[in-house]
Amino acid sequence: MFLSARCWLPSLFSLMLPLAGWAQGAPAPDRRVMEAQDLPTLARTSFHFGPSGGLNGADVRGVEPGGPRATTIGLRSGFEAGVAGQWARGGHWALQAGARYTRQGYTQRDQVLVANGAPRVAARAEYRLNYLTVPVSVAYAQFANGQGIQGYAGLYAAKFLAGRYETSDVAPGAPPVRGRVRAADARPVFGRGEYVRPWDAGLQAGLGYRYGPALLQVGYTHGLRSLAPTLSGGSGFTASPYYNRAVRLSLTYFAFGPRD
């Protein structure tokens, strides 16, 4: 009798546990919870995409001619619009990519030191550069379903589309000079007009916050490819390299894709 009780008592105890939970209004524990598995990480592979837009503040680094001529570079505000997508296979990690039209640029002020040492503004210029930008980043989210705070880092490539420039205060009473910025890998030494290389590429990184299908990001882009074309004609002159820099704020709405 004692041995038979040892056989059926554990079985009876295991059957009573779910009944006790049911009597208290609590459902029986899920098997995945009992195994201490993170439920969001069990989600299937998903791809979300949607419209994206934002603002940026850009300038360039490297335009520092020496001698009596001094150059000051300033920020210029711009905007961007396009599409963005995110691919994730459950868990905290995701791959983000997009394609966007980006308008950025910079302002430039040149000063010439006169005989008495006082600086005189020789020219002010404003450049507007338009790119088709393709960023690719790896992101890590706070929660395993992709929600919450996130950090991202990656690369970008940008194709120059078109641009404009405007120069003023070249001489007292002179009207502003306006023109197109053209794409070229090489330019003549004494040619007129403004040129930049047709391709830009660099690094990007930033922080974001996702709530539902909305993703807000703030980031920084650091160009690694000089915008200055080489000088042709065998003159022996070299162009001073300069590089794009920008801070950006964007909002993406993942309108398409499975619900998290």
Describe the structure.
By secondary structure, the chain is mainly beta. 10% of the residues lie in helices and 58% in strands. The chain has two helices and 13 strands; from the N terminus they run H-H-E-E-E-E-E-E-E-E-E-E-E-E-E. The protein has helices at 2-23, 31-34, and strands at residues 46-61, 69-74, 76-88, 93-113, 119-141, 148-168, 177-183, 186-188, 194-196, 199-211, 214-223, 230-232, 243-253. It has an eight-stranded antiparallel barrel. The chain is elongated, with a radius of gyration of 30 Å. The two termini are 56 Å apart. Mean pLDDT is 81; it is low at 1-43.
Order of helices and strands: HHEEEEEEEEEEEEE
- Biggest sheet: strand arrangement: 1-3-4-5-6-10-11-13
Assign an overall shape.
elongated
Extract low-pLDDT stretches: 1-43
Helix share bin: 10-25%
Key structural traits:
260 residues; mainly beta; eight-stranded antiparallel β-barrel; two-stranded parallel ribbon; 13 strands
Give me a quick take on this structure.
This protein has 260 residues and is mainly beta.
Give the arrangement of secondary structure elements:
Blueprint: H1 2-23, H2 31-34, E1 46-61, E2 69-74, E3 76-88, E4 93-113, E5 119-141, E6 148-168, E7 177-183, E8 186-188, E9 194-196, E10 199-211, E11 214-223, E12 230-232, E13 243-253
Parallel strand pairs: 7-9, 8-12
Antiparallel strand pairs: 1-3, 1-13, 2-4, 3-4, 4-5, 5-6, 6-7, 6-10, 10-11, 11-13
